[in-house]
Design brief:
agmatine deiminase activity; 26% strand; protein-arginine deiminase activity; 347 residues; globular; 26% helix; hydrolase; alpha/beta; L-arginine/glycine Amidinotransferase, Chain A; Peptidyl-Arg-deiminase_porph; 19 strands
Length: 347
């Protein structure tokens, strides 16, 4: 029977967390040519995470990761790590991890299809991770199979109060959910995420972003009806008009109560290139933990400092720490893309 009195919520990221997932890089991923550098970034992430909450490490070779972290972290931090071994294609836990819904505070693990952002890259092993974690009891809660529908964690943002934000350029992109229309996709999101409102953003696709415009690279939710977003001041930047249009759209948005959002503008990093290709550097891809926010930095002191200052305005009670994300963006993501948080009660 269906509990008609059940209360559902898609928790905001600042809801109390039980753990954060990292899916560890290895030599059979696209990180092979700079595996040492990206592994160092993962160690830095693990160091910060385990100071504040549990860390779930998914790895193709757990013993290798254990040996590495034993030499880098304290015994107390190691005790906070849950290791799980299974085959993996890549490292983007945000997009292959379970999206957690709460029903009367009971976790519902929504297992969506991950198909390599529209079948651009190998994905079959990563698509199987969530089910394996649930079957082995690592993730606690009811597993719901939605693998007939493609949805990546980085493509949605929840304010925790019934509004879900997404982007039209991502959810309507080829090789995801065609031939479903925008109306049909929105209906699914409302039903499966128990959302009262779906807000579609139509602008702000970062050059070099191969996810087709994930919202977690451009606009992020924060407490008290706050939205942090990437702005662009350089009229010579090829992204200028697009991000001006995004800013204009955000200014027209209203909360469920009909009030304007509090908008906090993050700087656009100075363009970073790799072999002539612009990389999708962004400060919006920060990671929220229990009591701390990790801000991606790009060795741009002025912009890095301004981004951390702005994030502090949104999270005044949180510690703000920076981790260099220049290696991460070489594979077209940033720090938030590497992680998936699980609310209290899941791990």
């Amino acid at each position: 029977m269906t509990d008609t009195n059940a209360i559902y919520s898609l928790p905001a990221e600042w809801y109390e967390q039980s753990a954060i997932q990292l899916t560890w890089p290895h030599e059979d991923t696209d990180w092979k040519t700079y595996l040492a550098e990206i592994t160092d970034t993962f160690v830095q992430m693990a160091r910060v995470i385990t100071l504040h909450e549990k860390l779930l490490v998914v790895a193709s070779d757990v013993s290798k990761v254990q040996r590495l972290l034993l030499g880098e972290l304290t015994a107390a931090q190691i005790e906070r790590i849950i290791f799980f071994e299974c085959p993996t294609n890549d490292t983007w836990a945000r997009d292959h991890g379970a999206i957690t819904l709460l029903r009367n505070d009971h976790p519902i693990l929504l297992d969506y299809k991950f198909n390599g952002w529209g079948e651009k890259f190998k994905w079959e092993k990563d698509n199987a991770i969530t089910r394996q974690l649930a079957e082995h009891g690592i993730l606690q809660g009811t597993l719901e199979d939605h693998t007939d529908f493609v949805l990546e964690g980085g493509s949605i943002e929840s304010d925790g109060a019934g509004t879900v934000f997404t982007t039209s350029q991502c959810l309507l992109a080829p090789h995801r959910n065609q031939p479903l229309t925008q109306t049909e996709i929105e209906q699914r999101l409302r039903q499966q995420l128990h959302a009262e409102r779906i807000v579609w953003l139509d602008y702000g696709n970062l050059v070099g972003d191969d996810t087709d415009g994930h919202i977690d690279t451009i606009v992020r939710c924060a407490p008290n009806d706050t939205l942090l977003y990437i702005g662009c001041d350089d009229e010579s930047d090829e992204q200028y008009a697009d991000f001006k249009a995004l800013e204009g759209q955000l200014q027209t948005l209203r909360t469920a109560e009909g009030q304007p959002y509090r908008l906090l503008r993050l700087p656009m990093p100075t363009a970073i290139y790799d072999d002539g290709e612009r990389l999708p550097a962004t400060y919006a891809n920060f990671v929220i933990l229990n009591g701390v926010v990790i801000c991606p930095t790009y060795a741009q002191p002025k912009h890095d400092k301004q981004a951390m200052k702005t994030i502090r305005q949104a999270f005044p009670e949180y510690e703000i720490v920076g981790i260099d994300a220049r290696t991460v963006i070489r594979q077209h993501g940033s720090l938030h893309c590497l992680t998936m948080q699980y609310p209290a009660g899941v791990v």
